[in-house]
Amino acid sequence: MQKVIVACVALICFAAPVLLTLASYTNERVLEEDNVRPRDLPGKVLFFSANWCPACRHADPTYQELRNAGYPIRKVDVDSNPTLAQKYGISSIPQFVYVVDGHEKSRISGGASASRLKRLYRGGW
């Protein structure tokens, strides 16, 4: 009987911190996303693309989703605006570049989900 009690206490001592950590991390992530007010974000994402690019057309719904949700995002056609594309060193498209006060903070090459792009605004990947 004593061994069973010791085993239960050991299990609780091991499992409790793990479960509490997971629970707090999950709640923190939910609150973090619920409290995001897109218009209050410090920067914007530049979505570099072109009309002839199939991968860009595939990434367009993600751009539209963020735009419709009020996130500061701007679509930049590399053919119409080569100067801006050159400024940010765009060599392949699609590219999502997070810019604050004209300075690049991070970027994602290729397609990305809306949740991954939202993490860009918070400085994550």
UniProtKB/TrEMBL annotation:
GO cellular component terms given for this protein: cytoplasm
GO molecular function, one term: protein-disulfide reductase activity
Keywords annotated in UniProt: Signal
Signal peptide: 1-23
Pfam families, A to Z: Thioredoxin (PF00085)
Top-level taxon of the source organism: Bacteria
Residue ranges occupied by any Thioredoxin domain in the UniProt entry: 16-125
Protein's UniProt name: Thioredoxin domain-containing protein
Organism: Blastopirellula marina
